[in-house]
Structures are given as C-alpha cells and as structure tokens.
From TrEMBL:
Biological processes annotated in GO: recombinational repair
Naturally occurring in which organism (per UniProt): marine sediment metagenome
The UvrD-like helicase ATP-binding domain, residue ranges: 4-231
Entry's Gene Ontology molecular function annotations: 3'-5' DNA helicase activity; ATP binding; DNA binding; hydrolase activity
Organism placement in taxonomy: unclassified sequences, metagenomes, ecological metagenomes
Any one Gene Ontology cellular component term annotated for this protein: cytosol
A Pfam family matched in the record: UvrD-helicase
Name used for this protein in its record: UvrD-like helicase ATP-binding domain-containing protein
Keywords, alphabetical: ATP-binding, DNA-binding, Helicase, Hydrolase, Nucleotide-binding
CDD domains: DEXQc_UvrD
C-alpha cells in the first residue's frame, strides 16, 4: 500500500499523544486523512486499545471513509474503534443502556409531523408546524427544556413551552424518540447516572472530533462530560 506522506503540521497533529489538541485547517487540507492517521498512530505507536478510541464526524460519508481506511490499514483491528456521528453515538448509548422506554424506536419524518400536529391541537396552537418544530429543535440543542421556556418572560416562549411539553408526552406514550432526542436523552442519562457516565469515561480514553466548530451546545456538553477523566 502506498505510504501516506504528511507535512510537518499534519505529522505534529498525528503524533500528539496526551492532552487536548485543536487542529485548525481549511477545506481540502486533509482533515479526515489526518484524523484517520492519528487513530492508526495511537494504536500502532502508542499501543492504545482501539476499543478505547472514539472518533466523531458530522457526515455519514466521512464515517464510511474513515472506517474503510482503518480496515485496510489495521489488520483485524479496523472495526474495533468507534467511528460514528454524534447522533449515531447517542443511539448506540440508548440501545446499550436499555433506555427506560422499552422497545423505543426513532420516529419517521411524516410520523413526527403528525404527532407534532396533535401536540399543537392539545396546546391550542395555530402557527406553522414546521417553524414551531424547528424552534423546539433549536431549544433542545441548547439544552432548554419546556419548563425553562415556561419560566421565560417572553409570551412566545411560554406558548412554545406548552406545545413542546405536549409533544414530549405524546412521543413518550408512543415509545418514540426523534433525532434531537438521540443527543438530549444520553446527556440526561449521563447527568443522572454517575455510574453510567464513569463507564463511558473509562471506555473512551481518546476522543477525536472532526469539524468541531459545527458542534451544538449539547454536543459540546456531552464531549465535556465524556472527557473529564482523560484530559
């Protein structure tokens, strides 16, 4: 296989071992390649167990690209490191921990809108459903709960809190989670269950994040929780 050629800056990023590191780069500068090479370097040069590595990207295409490269370069170990998106990580955690709603499933787009319209009817809301759902999504990604909105001094926030609350109740009754729940629920579990958090902190001793600047508040908070013991 053709040897990967790294420039001095890329080599510095790949060979870094302990402690936080930020890599600043422009589009097309080989970020995904560097992240992949760093995973390989940690395993082959520093003897890190691949099961203790977590690599997060924002696109499924990048996930598949990294996994493919690892499988070609690491004999028998290419599939042991966890490479996934933030939401895929959340889904794995909910499944592994037996999320309290037994047999939950991810709601489909059309089904989600139908449920949300039911929530709007219960809350007596007449606005555009997609706009309200988008506002709730933004709130959840900023770790704002229905009760937080209820305490707001803004009338529009108080109104939104009602449909937000109804929507959450309807999902729970139907044993459904939406895309935002794949982050919000694991975050809540980590905050409420110290033993569970400690397990994942112990497991993920090296965390690599591609395109970190695109992370939402809840993504950053999840990363902070997971990395507390290995900084």
């Amino acid at each position: 296989m053709k040897e990967i050629q790294l420039n001095p800056q890329q080599l510095e990023a790949v060979s870094h071992k302990d402690g936080p590191m930020v890599v600043l780069s422009v589009v097309g500068s080989g970020k995904t390649m560097v992240l992949t090479e760093r995973i390989i370097h940690l395993i082959e040069e520093y003897g890190i167990n691949p099961t203790n590595l977590l690599a997060i990207t924002f696109a499924k295409k990048a996930v598949l690209e990294i996994i493919s490269r690892l499988e070609k370069r690491l004999s028998g170990n290419g599939d042991k490191a966890i490479v996934c998106t933030f939401h895929s990580l959340g889904y794995r955690i909910l499944r592994a921990e037996g999320y309290p709603i037994n047999g939950f499933r991810l709601v489909h787009n059309g089904e989600q809108m139908n449920i949300f319209r039911q929530a709007m009817d219960k809350a007596d809301m007449k606005e555009e459903p997609s706009l309200l759902l988008s506002r709730i999504s933004l709130a959840k990604n900023d770790l704002i709960s229905p009760s937080d909105l209820e305490q707001s001094s803004k009338p529009e926030d108080k109104k939104l809190s009602k449909v937000y609350h109804c929507y959450e109740l309807l999902k729970r009754r139907k044993r459904l989670v939406d895309f935002d729940d794949l982050l919000y629920l694991p975050y809540q579990l980590f905050r409420e269950d110290k033993g569970m958090l400690e397990y994942y902190q112990s497991r993920f001793q090296h965390i690599l994040v591609d395109e970190f600047q695109d992370s939402s508040k809840i993504m950053v908070e999840i990363l902070k929780l997971l990395s507390q013991t290995h900084q």
